[in-house]
TrEMBL record:
Official protein name in the record: Spore maturation protein CgeB
Alphabetized Pfam families for the sequence: Glyco_trans_1_2
Residues annotated as domain Spore protein YkvP/CgeB glycosyl transferase-like: 191-348
């Protein structure tokens, strides 16, 4: 079977999804969604909105749409051209926020391929996804709340959780020289507040954060992390890192912290499975999906608020054997149930080609 996968190039998730198809003997090709332009303008608009007590979302969306119109048009044209070239039996769109409804409608009408959308951001946040979902043969989302959100548009959205790639995440024998680690971008205020609280109350511990937080070209971000939030800024390694480095950090950490983005109303982010796949001890904010996928307390530990988190950090950081056992339990279930191979198998069982 010829499979065409299209989505962001970020963190090689498209390649991780492709591997199980290739292992089954299918031929996989790609069209990668182009990166966004004008992020600085969007961030400045966002900071201005905060200062003026205006959420600014409509203005930011318009600016993004304008700045990225040319690359979005080119991407949609490339997608159709690639279908003409490869004649796939299956088109798998990952995320899908830049696939125009008119494009997927054209593909559905003109070409004899099964179209599948898998949202690994909350799909109902994006206008192209909401308006275009009815033209896909199948819609999946990592986020359970999408099921009801899409239902109002008469769209049957199935839930397919995120996963991890075992080629990147596994246990390694390495010294634990980091007390508490967090890997992720500072996209939301909630993350910043949690991390600031921990840094303030855990001064004697080695707390490390990785992820792009500021640009030298953005004066608002520089002010935030170099002045108003200097204590947090001093703990951030201000760059993105690839999977193998992330796996080493999780193995080096006594406690791997997971803080979900607010879009994860009920769902579980990739970090949950990647930490488990690495055998790390994970402390995460609780979601409904986590409770259904993991044995809380035995394979993963959850917290309810920042005070509960602090209390559990102080408890577990002194209990190496408990941490290691929970990490081993998580590693076992992750490799047995939560790899991309498991998700592709589930997808193929639900998709008729």
């Amino acid at each position: 079977m010829n499979v065409l996968i299209s989505g962001p190039k970020y963190q090689s998730y498209c390649h991780s999804v492709a591997k199980p198809f290739e292992q089954k003997g299918h031929i996989v090709d790609f069209v990668f969604r182009p990166p966004y332009r004008g992020r600085l303008a969007s961030r400045i608009a966002s900071y201005y909105a905060k200062l003026t007590n205006n959420d600014g979302k409509i203005e930011i969306d318009r600016r993004n749409s304008f700045l990225n119109k040319k690359t979005t048009n080119a991407y949609n044209a490339e997608l159709v051209d690639k279908i003409n070239e490869t004649d796939p039996e299956l088109l798998l769109i990952i995320k899908g926020e830049r696939v125009r409804p008119s494009t997927i409608q054209k593909i559905s009408k003109k070409y004899n391929c099964t179209t599948v959308l898998w949202c690994y951001d909350k799909g109902a946040r994006f206008q192209n996804v909401v308006n275009g979902a009815k033209y896909y043969d199948y819609v999946f989302s990592f986020e359970p709340s999408d099921k009801n959100d899409f239902k109002q548009y008469d769209i049957d959205c199935k839930i397919l959780p995120m996963a991890f790639d075992p080629n990147y995440y596994n246990t390694i024998n390495i010294k634990e020289d980091i007390d508490i680690s967090f890997i992720g971008r500072m996209h939301c205020e909630y993350r910043k507040e949690i991390l600031e609280f921990l840094i303030k109350n855990l001064e004697e511990y080695n707390v490390q954060v990785w992820g792009k937080a500021w640009s030298l070209l953005n004066p608002f971000q520089l002010y935030e992390y170099k002045l108003s939030r200097r204590q947090l800024g001093n703990k951030i390694n201000n760059y993105d890192i690839e999977h193998n480095t992330i796996n080493r950090i999780y193995n080096r950490s006594k406690i791997c912290l997971n803080i979900h983005h607010p879009q994860s109303v009920m769902g579980t982010n990739p970090r949950t499975f990647e930490i488990a796949g690495s055998g790390g001890f994970q402390l995460t904010d609780e979601t409904e999906q986590i409770k259904s996928l993991f044995d809380v307390g035995e394979e993963i530990v959850t917290y309810q608020d920042k005070n509960d988190l602090l209390e559990k950090i102080l408890y577990y950081i002194e209990r190496k054997e408990e941490r290691e056992q929970i990490g081993l339990n998580a590693n076992e279930i992750a490799h047995n149930k939560h790899t991309f191979n498991h998700r592709v198998n589930t997808l193929l069982k639900n998709v008729h080609i």
